[in-house]
Amino acid sequence: MFSNKPVIKISAIVLFLAAALLFAFTGDEPKKPDESRFTPVTLTQPGELDEPNTFEVLSDGRVLISERKGAIKLFDPITKMVKVVATLPVNTKYTSARGKVTEAEEGLMGLTVDPDFNKNHWIYTFYSHPTEKKWMLTRWKFENDALVAGSEKVLLQFESQREVCCHTGGGMTWDAKHDLYLTIGNNTGALLSSSTDERPDKLHWDDQRGTANTNSLLGKILKIHPEANGTYTIPAGNLFPKGMDKTRPEIYTMGHRNPWRPSIDSKTGWLYWGDIGPDATEDSDLGPKGYDELNQARKPGFFGWPYFVGPNAAFPIFDYVNGEAGPKKDPNKPINNSVNNTGLKELPAVAPPFIYYPYSASPEFPLVGTGSRSSVGGPIYHRSDRPLAKRPWPAYYEGKWLATDLARGWIMSISMKANGDYKGMEQFLPGYHPIEPIDMKFGPDGDLYVLEYGSVWFGKSDNAKLVRIEYNAGNRKPTVMASTNKQGGTVPLNITLSSAGTYDADGDALKYSWKVTTAGAQPKIYPTANPAITLTKPGVYMATLTVTDAKGASNSKSVKIIAGNEAPVVKVDLDNNTSFYFNNKPINYTVNVNDKEDGSLVAGTISPAQVSMSINYTSEGFDYVQVAQEQSSVDASTQFAVAIALMSHADCKNCHSVNAVNVAPSFTDISAKYKDSPAEIERLAHTIRNGGSGHWNRPIAMPAHPGITLNDARTIVNYIINVTNNNINTMPVKGTYTPKVAAEDNGNGSYIIRAAYTDRGNKNIPKQTTVSTIVLHNPQVWAATAPIMKNAATKVNGLDGTTNVVARKDGYIAFKKLDMTGIKQLELAATATALENNPGGTIEVRLDSPTGILLGQTQFEQLDQKPKSLNWIKTDIKESAGMHDVYFVFKNDKAKAIDALLLFSAIRFEDEKK
After folding, report:
1. Which of 78, 90, 206, 707 has its CA 20 to 30 A from that of 585?
2. Is the dihedral of CA 903, 906, 907, 912 positive or negative?
3. Which residues does residue 807 pair with via DSSP β-bridges, in sequence order?
């Protein structure tokens, strides 16, 4: 009898090769797979990992994980358990010249396994010696889930300093010739200017002593060939030949600040890695802004630090004695004249960067985002590297670089041109949000493994974990949505269970089954998609919907129902328009709360102090939908829902916790220190945007977040300052609020009006919370954002990046459910020019349909040339009240159907005639 598994594997290889050949002959890139085909699977349990930093997946699926404090752990995919297999004595601290002892970026910083591990059982570790100031690269024998006692061989060791922080590197990888690559950080104190301080007492602030020193291993990526006897030899092709005076032959690349996770492209032999840059937020006289880099080395080279950063932007060499900025280095012939240099003076020409990005938005690479940055790197995908993989990735990712950033938590799929130059990037699996991903590589089954360090720096994080991202080329599980038409209520409770939103990506027929359970009762099964049920006994019920497709794959989701306590009814009434705010125009509001058990605000049985009422301005780009989605999981004391939502999209939790001290002070400590100082509170908002250091004596500076507006930064600070305040009532339940957008904000944001009430429960039945939210938008609306568009298209203006609607005859755009109460006039911005062959036309404003009630119309004539700014024209309209769909219909009876009548830019809704 023969297994058919080899046939299946060979077939998979044949199919892959066929796809590769098809691509080679047609030149068409394979189709991008749907995101639903990738599933992140968490392998470890909360609390099992403590500062994990690197890992290796063995051929049998077991995973070796190194931790900074010295532990080596093993994850077993069969038992799904993690156990400690070794603990190395390591140094994890540094002692300043003043004798202060602080956690450092030292410890067990790297681990890899030999390419012939299945034969020789060798693993390699890179760690800081526990008592001597030096780094060790050693080899061990790993057998029977343990390091063999006495098997350690020291391949390489070199001195380090432990007086100032930071940067250690520690990443390792192998090439096809079994040469080992090791990244080593600069081991230097961080400065905003060039790290070239040559003063006698500032040796450890001079990167010319190490990174730019051809005779030092600091700030380098080494390439060595480990030998069987525990030594190493120098392979061909390094930066300096063996025996060359004032050089180290181990150096493959130099000029790095903190290179992290290296990887080798098995097809080209090129090296890829992430390198963490300095903290400067802006260009200044001291030097260029800081950049992180994702780099490619096609050959040995010098990558610029400390003389150049990012797009090879040059630092003026600062004279720290006289406080003056000196000349910049020549990238084609950089010279290291430092008194601390023991190597060659003339360095190799600076290699070009691959990808680089600052704290602020990157014009060259806009997808990388803004804020804290900590480039890691990652693997290059080639299907042929794992020919027998059970879950090979699709050909779409062939030859692409999967790279991650620890602080920003994204994974980018980076594609290259045929010659290896950068081509483009896109975010891979944007629905997956790793928490400080610190290492990433493919395993033998074809899965991408991601090691998440967790949110607590220099401490154990419950959310540190190992994740395996699996690709499913076959049948996918249904995507299940479960909801109810009400949160709960008094008994008997008539409630409808809903499967709305459930779908199968493969289009399979689905079977539905609801299981309703509560303590002390038999479960009840309802084999329909949307059953109406009656609950007669008070209690907490769990309704679980299981959906099964035609091929037997199933998925489930649950929703909680509270029977025996009616949820409160909360409503915010406005005397004004409920779609738009008007700056400096008062908003009159009244909160009404009614609860079947508790009574009402009007009757006085519910105290205003029990109701949370808040109005927050959120700058342009805020995802206010998230506040609404989280309402079911909050209670009325969550008065800072907007601030919490803002922080969840930033990197605040990377360094801060509410109560615990992380790498940065806790919010509670910040509140205690600054709550009575208005000037300091305002300074904190600016610090969030611009970065800062020196106020808490921490080893890591506060990074800049230029992508957070000053208004949103103030909202976050307000939450932090009041983090210990238990008073839920932030505003009266009835009052007047006047919107006043800060002068430094562009005014394109929204006001979120939010009222919440948590009832008192009903004996043993839990409390229920209801939140009412109104979002008031800026009254200027961009035409291209219309959700309804017919016989019209969008066009990006290549000069200013704005997007306009190309209006055609009898076409239209429409906005759904706009409150027209109090709207007395519109202003429309549109342009028709002879240059773009626009004949012009009329824009009609109609209610609820393209042929609905005509509110007004505006004629746009053809102009000889395009105006320098938006062409606004006032449009008088008939007043109407209430919610309506508002249509903008394009007319020109003399135009041809193919003509682009005009470019429609924007609409302003006005509450008065101007």
Report:
1. 707
2. negative
3. 792, 902
Burial of 534 per CB tally in 10 Å (0-12, 13-18, 19+): exposed
Q: What is the pLDDT of residue 28?
A: 65
CATH architecture of the domain with residue range 52-374: 6 Propeller (2.120)
Q: What angle do CA 769, 773, 779 make, to 5 degrees?
A: 175
Torsion of CA 524, 527, 533, 534, to 10 degrees: -30
Identify which of 239, 250, 73 has the alpha carbon closest to the alpha carbon of residue 155. 250
CB 831 within 8 A of CB 825: no
Q: Phi-psi category of 460—alpha, beta or left, where left has phi over 0 and alpha has psi -120 to 50? A: beta
Q: How far apart are CA 183 and CA 185, in angstroms?
A: 7
CATH topology for the 780-910 domain: Jelly Rolls (2.60.120)
Q: List the chain residues with pLDDT less than 70.
A: 1-28, 97, 191-193, 622-639, 648-649, 654, 661-663, 694, 697-701, 725-729, 798-801
Could you write out the DSSP letters of every residue in 310-322? TTTEEPEEEETTT
- Rounded CA separation 331/550 (Å): 63
pLDDT digits (tens, 9 = 90+) for 277-291: 988 888 888 889 999
For residues 88-110, one letter each, b for 16 or more C-beta atoms within 10 angstroms of the residue's C-beta and e for the rest, the string is bebbbebeeeeeeeebbbbbbbb
Segments making up each domain of the chain, as ranges: 1-50+378-474, 52-374, 483-563, 569-776, 780-910
CATH architecture of 569-776: Orthogonal Bundle (1.10)
| Residue 222 pLDDT | 98
DSSP-derived letter for residue 392 is P
Three-class secondary structure of residue 816 per DSSP: strand
Helix or strand holding residue 684 (H, E): helix 678-690
Cα–Cα distance between 126 and 110 in angstroms, integer? Answer: 5
Q: How far apart are the first and last CA of the chain?
A: 88
Q: Are 151 and 138 spatial neighbours (Cβ–Cβ below 8 Å)?
A: no
d(CA 350, CA 330): 9
Q: Encoding tokens for residue 736? A: 């007047």
Q: Answer yes or no: same fold for 483-563 and 569-776.
A: no
In 178-284, which residue ranges form alpha helices assigned H by DSSP?
Answer: none
CA distance 21 to 16: 9
Q: Distance from CA of residue 204 to its chain's centroid?
A: 33
Instruction: Provide the pairing of β-strand 301-302 with 251-254.
Output: parallel
Q: Which pair of tokens denotes residue 545? A: 């919907």
Other beta carbons within 10 Å of 591: 23
Closest to 684 (Cα-Cα) out of 153, 117, 528, 696 = 696
Q: Of how many residues is the chain composed?
A: 914
Say if residue 896 is exposed, middle or buried (CB neighbours under 10 Å; 0-12, 13-18, 19+): exposed
User: What pLDDT does 635 receive?
Assistant: 46
In our burial notation (b when 16+ CB lie closer than 10 A, e otherwise), range 334-344 reads: bebebebbebb
CATH class of 483-563: mainly beta
d(CA 293, CA 375): 7
CB 734, CB 574: distance < 8 Å: no
